[in-house]
Amino acid sequence: MATRSTSMTQEIVLQSINCLLIYNYMFIKCELKVR
Q1: Which segments of the chain does DSSP mark as H helices, in order?
Q2: First and final CA of the chain: distance in angstroms?
Q3: Within its chain, how far is the Cα of 15 from the centroid?
Q4: Long-range contacts of 3-11 (CB under 8 A, 24+ apart)
Q5: Which is nearest to 13 in space by CA: 5, 31, 30, 29?
Q6: Could you report the per-residue pLDDT of 4-26, keeping only the tens digit for each?
Q7: Distant-in-sequence contacts of 19-25, Cβ < 8 A, 24+ apart
Q8: Number of neighbouring beta carbons within 10 Å of residue 34
Q9: What is the pTM of this model?
């Protein structure tokens, strides 16, 4: 059970990091377009 829960939390963390990276990428693209 412990290993399963840790893997679940790792997946959630990875997904959140991916979302942040995509968000930052889109934000930077918009900034460059405005400039």
Answers
A1: 2-34
A2: 51
A3: 5
A4: none
A5: 5
A6: 778 889 999 999 999 999 999 99
A7: none
A8: 6
A9: 0.59
